[in-house]
Write the structure tokens for this entry.
Amino acid sequence: MKCMDPTVLLGGWADHDRRSNVYVGNIKAMTKSRSANGTTGILIRISNGTYCFRVYNKDHTFTDYDLLHNDLCITIKDKDAFFYRDANGNSLDHSPATLGIKK
């Protein structure tokens, strides 16, 4: 499996630049900002096939954030996350047990 082209995940660099410039060019359009540093969430593929960063609230509701940051540092804290290597390349998926892979 080949790595996804980040321009595909972000909707294209042109789209990323256009969306980012909305905030840079019109600071009044930005209603609120806060640091995301230290926030726990889930990188999740949503129904249209794109990824977002999902943050759950105490009442079990959630907020999905579009991924516009192009070099975000990630630490995986998921005991069910496993790296795989095969003839097709490298991938990250659920554990062999979750996927039903027997040794």
